[in-house]
Write a structure and sequence with these properties.
two-stranded antiparallel ribbon, five-stranded antiparallel sheet, 177 residues, elongated, DNA/RNA_pol_sf, alpha+beta, Reverse transcriptase domain-containing protein, 44% helix, RT_dom, 9 strands
């Protein structure tokens, strides 16, 4: 999005955190990361999602053509791999790739009942915690994200997923297991 960045994302989260913590409350944040997200998008699932948005048949055919039979190679330290055809994923260094990824995860972001922030494949779920029901709600949203991820064949990188509790007393930081 124009005029949006990782800094904007961080400022939005910081504002929410400060509002809760300044009042003596606690904010729990789940930091989630998809594993090789742009490379893992299933084309058939993506096209089904785009169709559900009401994209015209001509546009669907154009996007399908854009995604299929893409020849790729890896270049690293002066070495280049053989060409191969991608069967999944959206182009990362393109204008259309990030848009297609955002459309792919759109239903996830609109289906949770807590605050969310997303930037590329990094997602934050967060809510103020005042009682056990708030904790259960955040847990339920995490469970929903995990199920959605499995259903849409987009794996979470659990080594990069964490829950952090912010309070005036201390900061609790632990990996999700």
């Amino acid at each position: 999005m124009t005029n949006r960045s990782t800094v904007t994302n961080l400022v939005c989260l910081t504002q929410s955190l400060c509002e809760v913590v300044d009042k003596g409350g606690q904010m729990d944040v789940i930091y989630a990361d998809f594993s090789k997200a742009f490379d893992s998008i299933n084309h058939d699932i993506l096209l089904q999602k785009l169709s559900s948005f009401g994209f015209s048949l001509k546009l669907m055919n154009l996007i399908s053509s854009y995604l299929s039979n893409r020849s790729n190679f890896v270049f690293f330290n002066g070495f280049e791999s053989d060409n191969y055809v991608s069967t999944s994923g959206v182009p990362q260094r393109s204008n259309l790739g990030p848009l297609l990824f955002n459309l792919f995860i759109n239903e996830l972001l609109t289906s949770v009942n807590c605050s969310t922030l997303a930037y590329a494949d990094d997602i934050k779920l967060f809510c103020p915690i005042y009682n056990i029901e708030d904790s259960a709600r955040l847990q339920s949203n995490w469970d929903h994200l995990v199920c959605w991820s499995d259903f849409n064949r987009l794996k979470l990188n659990f080594d990069k997923c964490y829950v952090v509790s912010y309070t005036k007393k201390n900061i609790l930081f632990k990996p999700i297991t």
